[in-house]
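JOB MANIFEST
job_type = single_chain_structure
chain_count = 1
residues = 240
[input]
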Amino acid sequence: MGGLFKFFQKASSFDPVSKYVWNHVDKPIATIGAGKKLKAENARREEANRQQRIREGRASIDSALAPFNDPYYRQKNTQYQNYYGSQVDQQHQRAQDALKLQLSTSGLGRSSAAGFGMGELGSEYARNMADVNLKGNEYEQGVRRDVEGIRGTLNTQLNSSADAALAAQRANMQAADQFKKADNFAPLASVFSDFSKQYKNDQNNRLLSNALDLQYNSPFQQAMSGMSSGAGKAWKLLSS
């Protein structure tokens, strides 16, 4: 194409036809090619600018959400465990006092049953505190998911708009809302519900079971059982 341009350019200086072709055909073709090249270059430049705005917007989002870091999440975990752990402690103390009173009233204050009952209550307390620890970890992970969900939404909006300033504004608003968000911990239900009464019933059932065992395994009952067995054998001999 370049050689053709040069030919017509040279010929147009002395040939009217070639001059007409040069002025009315070849130059527009060259202009169209240059226009396509310019348009493609502008598109590349605009996309590069768009990506730069997106990078700037993501930096603003990350900056706004930077305070939501590992110490922040651990603090949420600690707040959960402190709130519910203290309630477990309070309920455990009340259950312990009620059990002591129940044992004392029953004359078992210094018995092995008392030690067993306190041990059972201590095991129940340990199970409840382990549950608080587990739920605290779950609460921490839930807060993490909330913040990462905010980040994901902001990035999706940014990719669509490529507006760095708008992304920064939205990120700051979302961060402020998250900081103001209350934990909304609900009061803990009773986890030692009537432990002393339940323990008393268990003890009564155990005593009854032991009494029945003694009754049916006493020497007298064994002797009667042996006599019945011997009488049966004698009857079989007499009947044969």
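[summary]
DSSP finds seven helices and no strands in the chain.
Residues 207-224, 226-240 have pLDDT under 50 and may be disordered.
exit_status = 0
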